[in-house]
Design brief:
- It is a single chain.
- It is built from 34 helices and 30 strands.
- The protein has about 1000 residues and is an alpha/beta fold.
- The longest helix is centred in the N-terminal third of the chain and has 36 residues.
């Protein structure tokens, strides 16, 4: 059939129109499809670009010798920060909406992709918008870079010059007379009469003696070294040379040696007519402010003056001090090294400096908070004194105002009285390795100044917020190294003055905390309640009276990543649904969070860290909705039974508290893979829940178990059977690459002789010999059979830490078993007594570094070291109130000894004997006083084992930051000016039985 010409033309036109329309539609669909496909690549590219831009800004702002950042740089930094946060929030919201349920079928995944197609398109458009913003930011970065070079060319203040001005102004230092005498005695330079008594001077004359003075910037290291230098130079007993740290930056090792030799020769010429003759080629060399980068020159300098040299080095880094004072053992007879840690000034000396000798009641009361914030740091006190001296009349009100404005004074450049202190604090901040480590430091400003910092709590929060992410997945290692960096630089200090590697409770310098808090707030990194900024990332509330009556400020809570509450939260917790992107929720110190709040908390899909307070009595099954939760801490709650849904959380790594399991545990309803590494801890019962879960939790490396007495005899039998099998499951698995696995058993609540689980484990081992069991740390608290305990402990050849607590006496048989443990590094025994005392025989305890004996009854000899045995003990802790004299302890046989801890209530005569003996030891170990309390036993979550004992060894790791502030203990006038924390104070530092 032939169509009319008009119809053909109409059809052709329709076809052409359809082709055009469909072509455009297909083109648009293709564009949309390409946008959808490029989402992952675009987001990755954006993150890379932002990382580079942030690093560029960070390099500029932390450049060595760079002047304070300009307003342009500050605004640019804020722009990059906000852009980063916007992108991060957008990506997390998108991933939450488009992620399909794990294990879904292919059909379900396809259907889900179709349903979320529009969301993906919106996200792709948002990514394009972000790309434009990043491009604009990059353009501004180039302009800022040009400006930076112009500014950098301008002259800057010389920090060394400022240091010299400070030293000259502060020419009459306060509170260092005792430290000066001590340093002279350590160097063997004409010790005073009170130090000469009991000091072994026979071997000091022919030694190289190195003393490394280490402490936080502004703690008086240079002042102390200068005081010793000036006295020795004035006496003319030794040739003296002072080497400034900046000289080490410009001269090689040989150049430094040559410079010192020239100074010595010049000193000989200038002192030729001096009435005092030099002592046989002896000389004093002070190297001020040595840093890590200078260590490459240390061996050359040390070896050049190893004959009768006396060297003082000052440094702010602990590892540098250790490096300078450690030497090969074969040089023991000709080398002496000692790390002298600077001590902060006491209250009286602090007032003398800061208040310039004034002490009216109004001034003392008004300055109390100010002095506390200075924390006995001489430079901070001196800066305060300079500022207060500008006032016509000094009043307590002025001191209080200065305390409140301290952060501003530490940041602003127009406050010259704080210039030196500002430089020290800024150096501590800018010299950190990278911007992520600096972010971790600023993060510590969230906590109040007088609150202890628990290492595990801090690192887990860093990980939850992504501040310690390693490109190879070694996140925990990176977090631990970051915390170690702060310790190494003396930015944070141990609460208990024991130099133990097991210490886990720390505190920041008061003045450093003020600096961190102000800097964090100025960067809008953290904000307190009442902040006027709408966009807040880290939100904290600290013990505000009447908080429940306050109105919530106008803050976009959907952007909040962290909420930390200590005290009343008020309106901040009125609606948890608003915290859409929150990762960390720390409510353990919150007194008004209730059970009904948990319904909303369980809807926070992005939550990674959750800690709850004392008003929580139950955990709902809806906890299973927190699919991303990594840490759940219920140690401060009154929760007794934990739903199995909490165990089954797919990302949960750390579970902290004291809880029983539900009667019936159905593991088949749990995910196939369990990520749990820490469970502290279970209450063992007659049910099989613990045994079943021990089979399920394959990655466990830290377990804590309490054993409570059952009502019936059969219940007790079942409890022992299930407990023994659970322990076997746990210890049979070989340890991972880090060789860390700990087990803590608390069975004080059981009648003596009713714990047969340990016997069953030993019997099982005897049937499977030579099968090995694997543990690196074991803690046993309670009275067990005297024949069982040695057999059980002997099962673990890999054991490096062991703590035994009992109200009975310890037998020699047990000690003989412990002595054969070749890799045991730390041993703590808390007991009524030790039969015939602790005896170290030849070949026994070959690796032991730290020995702690907490005894109620002490015999004539508490510790005996036999001839020919040379143990490697570094720290000896004898917490025995009835200790009399040396009690047979020959510390001269402990050639590595660096620390002695005694009970603070030992009689004065005994204390003096130990001080004299320590002075006579070639290492001159510190003599400290640490309180102990054998009467306290754990019966509930709120009642941990005696905090005084756990603080000595950090054996019971409190997994939460205590909400009670650190209180000062009594000060005992030991030779080393030991800080003593009483039992009550130590219990406030670690008050709970959390781990």
């Amino acid at each position: 059939m032939v169509l009319p010409a008009g119809l053909v033309a109409e059809k052709a036109a329709a076809t052409a129109f359809a082709n055009v329309v469909m072509g455009r539609l297909n083109s648009e669909l293709e564009k949309k499809y390409q946008m959808w496909r490029n989402i992952e690549r675009e987001s990755t590219s954006l993150q890379t670009d932002l990382g580079i831009l942030a690093a560029a800004v960070d390099d500029y702002q932390t450049m060595a010798g760079h002047p304070p950042r300009t307003a342009v740089a500050r605004v640019y930094g804020e722009e990059i920060s906000e852009l980063t946060h916007d992108i991060e929030d957008c990506i997390e919201r998108f991933l939450h909406r488009v992620t399909c349920k794990a294990g879904a079928s292919r059909a379900r995944r396809s259907a889900h992709a179709i349903r979320t197609f529009r969301i993906r398109l919106r996200f792709a458009a948002k990514m394009k918008e972000f790309r434009n913003r990043v491009a604009a930011a990059r353009e501004r970065a180039l302009n800022a870079s040009v400006l930076a070079h112009v500014i950098q060319a301008q002259p800057t203040n010389n920090e060394t010059a400022q240091q010299l001005i400070y030293a000259q102004d502060h020419c009459h230092p306060v509170g260092i007379a005792g430290a000066t005498r001590e340093l002279r005695a350590l160097l063997g330079i004409q010790p005073n009469e009170d130090e000469a008594e009991g000091t072994n001077t026979a071997r000091t004359a022919a030694q190289l003696r190195v003393v490394a003075v280490v402490g936080f910037g502004g703690s008086g290291k240079t002042t102390l070294a200068k005081a010793v230098y000036d006295i020795v130079q004035k006496e003319g007993a030794l040739r003296c040379v002072w080497v400034d740290g900046h000289l080490l930056d410009h001269k090689g090792a040989n150049g430094i040696v040559k410079h010192i030799q020239e100074e010595i020769r010049m000193g000989e010429v200038s002192s030729a007519t001096s009435p005092t003759e030099h002592h046989e080629d002896r000389y004093l060399i002070v190297i001020d402010d040595i840093k890590e980068k200078h260590l490459m020159h240390w061996n050359t300098v040390r070896n050049a003056f190893r004959d009768n040299g006396r060297i003082i080095v000052t440094t702010a880094t602990q590892s540098v001090a250790n490096r300078c004072c450690n030497y090969p053992r074969e040089e023991d007879r000709c080398t002496f090294g000692y790390v002298y840690s600077m001590k902060t000034l006491g209250e009286e000396d602090s007032r003398k400096i800061a208040l310039m000798g004034r002490c009216s009641p109004d001034l003392v009361l008004g300055a109390a908070k100010l002095l506390k914030k200075c924390g006995g740091l001489p430079l901070a006190l001196y800066s305060v004194a300079c500022e207060l001296s500008c006032e016509k009349v000094l009043t307590g009100k002025l001191c209080n105002k200065l305390c409140n404005d301290m952060g501003t004074y530490l940041e602003r450049e127009d406050k010259p009285n704080f210039a030196r202190l500002r430089g020290v604090l800024r150096e501590n901040y800018t010299s950190l390795p990278d911007y992520t480590v600096r972010a971790c430091l600023l993060y510590l400003g969230i906590f109040p100044m007088d609150h202890p910092l628990r290492k595990n709590v801090i690192t887990r929060r860093w990980l939850a917020e992504g501040y310690a992410r390693h490109h190879q997945g070694l996140h925990q290692i990176l977090a631990d190294e970051t915390f170690k960096t702060f310790i190494n630089r003396n930015i944070i200090l141990p609460v208990v003055p024991i130099s133990s590697n097991t210490e886990k409770t720390w505190k920041a310098h008061g003045i450093m905390h003020a600096f961190m808090l102000h800097k964090s707030m100025s960067k809008k990194f953290i904000m307190p309640f009442g902040s006027q900024h709408k966009k807040v990332r880290h939100f904290f509330i600290h013990d505000s009276n009447g908080g429940s009556s306050r109105t919530m400020p106008d803050i976009d809570l959907s952007r909040v990543r962290l909420l930390t509450v200590i005290g009343n939260a008020g309106g901040a917790i009125s609606n948890f649904e608003k915290y859409q992107l929150t990762r960390v929720l720390d409510l353990e110190g919150c007194i008004d969070v209730k059970d009904y709040h948990l319904k909303d908390i369980c809807n926070l899909w992005n939550l990674r860290y959750l800690s709850l307070g004392s008003n929580i009595t139950r955990i709902p099954k809806e906890i299973a909705q927190l699919k991303l939760l990594e840490t759940l801490d219920v140690s401060k709650t009154r929760v007794n039974v934990l739903p199995v849904e909490a165990i089954g959380l797919p990302c949960l790594i750390h579970l902290i508290g004291k809880f029983k399991l539900q009667d019936q545990v159905k593991t088949e309803r749990l995910p196939k893979e369990c990520m749990l590494e820490t469970v502290k801890g279970f209450v063992a019962g007659k049910g099989q829940g613990l045994l079943l879960l021990m089979d399920y939790m394959k990655r466990l490396n830290k377990v804590k178990i309490w054993c409570d007495s059952e009502k019936t005899e059969q219940g007790q039998v079942d409890m022992n059977n299930h407990l023994s099998k659970a322990i076997q499951r746990y210890i049979e698995t070989p340890m991972g690459e880090d060789n860390v696995r700990s087990l803590s058993l608390y069975f004080q609540g059981l009648p003596q002789g009713t714990l047969s689980a340990l016997d069953q484990v030993c019997q099982h081992y005897s049937l499977r010999a030579p099968h090995m069991y694997h543990l690196s740390s074991l803690k046993l608290h309670g009275n067990s059979n005297s024949a069982t305990l040695p057999k059980f402990v002997a099962l673990f050849r890999d054991l490096t830490k062991l703590s035994i607590s009992t109200t009975l006496s310890v037998t020699q048989h047990l000690l003989s078993v412990l002595g054969k443990m070749s890799v045991l590094l730390y041993l703590k025994i808390t007991a009524n007594s030790i039969d015939d005392g602790f005896i170290i025989q030849v070949g026994m305890f070959r690796s032991l570094h730290r020995l702690s004996l907490v005894l109620k009854v002490v015999g004539t000899s508490v510790l005996t070291i036999e001839d020919g045995s040379w143990p490697e003990i570094i720290s000896l802790q004898l917490i025995c109130e009835d200790l009399v004299g040396l009690s047979g302890v020959e510390i001269m046989r402990l050639r590595e000894l660096k620390e002695i801890a005694l009970h603070p209530d030992v009689d004065e005569e005994t204390r003096k004997v130990w001080e004299a003996e320590a002075r006579n030891h070639h290492n001159r170990p510190n003599v400290l006083a640490i309180a102990g309390d054998l009467e306290v036993t754990p019966t509930a979550v709120e009642k941990e084992p005696p905090a005084t004992c756990s603080t000595m060894s950090a054996e019971v790791e409190a997994e939460s930051n205590a909400t009670a502030p650190i209180k000062s203990g009594h000060v005992v006038s030991f030779t080393k000016e030991a800080l003593v924390l009483g039992a009550a104070q130590l219990q406030e530092v670690a008050p709970s039985a959390t781990c």
